[in-house]
Amino acid sequence: MSSKTDGKGTEIPEGLYDSSAGKTYKRMTFFGKGSFAECYEIVDVATNEVYAGKIVSKKLLMKHKQKERMVQEITIHSSVSHPNIIKYHGFFEDNYNIYIVLELCKKRSMMELHKRRKTITEYECRYYIYQIIQGVKYLHDNRIIHRDLKLRNLLLNDMLHVKIGDFGLAT
Predict the structure, then answer these.
(1) Any idea which residues carry the catalytic annotation?
(2) Which stretches make up the Protein kinase domain (predicted)?
C-alpha cells in the first residue's frame, strides 16, 4: 500500500484502519487543507460507503492547548445531529494522525460555488440563508457557538443542502 506525505512531513497511509470499530478505509481523492488538517475522500472497504476524512497530524498537536482544541472539536461535533450540520461518523487514531470520519458533501463548499458562479439569485440566497440559520439556531439552542462561519465551512451535498462544518473553533 502506498502512502502520501502531508505538507508537514507526516505519512498518510492509503489504508486507514479503525481498530476500535474494526473498519478499514481507503484514502482516495485529496480535497484540501486547513491550518491543522487535510481532507480526503475515504471509502469504507467493506461497504463501499464514501465519507470525508479529516486527517490531523499529531505533530501539529504538540501544545496542550492544541490537543484540548482537537478533543473539544470531536466532543462538540459528535454531540450534534441536524440536517444542516455535517454528519459526524466517528474518529480514530494511530501513532501519527487523528482521523475524523464525516459526511461527504460532493458539491464542495459555498466558497467554491462562489468562485465558479460569482453570483447567485435572490431565490438561491434565501434558500441557502434559511438553511444556514436553521443550523446556527440548532447550535445556539444547544449552547454551541461555531465561531468560524465562512463560505469555506458551509458545504453543499448532492441535493444542494447547506451543511455547516469545521467545529475546530466551536465552544
Answers:
(1) 148
(2) 25-171
